């Protein structure tokens, strides 16, 4: 194998390892809404105004989430998705 093939093989192995371990890391975790500090959310929000991590603009926005250990969300003062979505829809109706 030449150097270019070795690098390509290593990159492929790393990509496959990441793809396989990502779901394992998420096992035992749940999305917890309303606990993320500004810029510390894990991904897109309920409003659909962004789809990336680190884009929340206010602390503890009820539409933003972080992955936490399963069962710990509510003790941290957060909400699971069903409750967060319900609150989001109610707030949208108000105005």
Describe the protein's architecture and organization.
The protein is α+β, with helices and mostly antiparallel strands and 95 residues long. It has one domain (28-94). It is 40% helix and 11% strand. The chain is built from two helices and two strands; from the N terminus they run αββα. Strands 1-2 form a two-stranded antiparallel sheet. The chain starts with a helix and ends with a helix. Residues 1-26 form the signal peptide. InterPro entries: DUF2282_membr. It comes from Alteromonas sediminis.
Please summarize what this structure is.
The chain is 40% helix and 11% strand. The protein is α+β, with helices and mostly antiparallel strands and 95 residues long.
Which terms would index this structure?
95 residues; single chain; 11% strand; DUF2282 domain-containing protein; two-stranded antiparallel sheet; signal; alpha+beta; 2 helices; DUF2282_membr
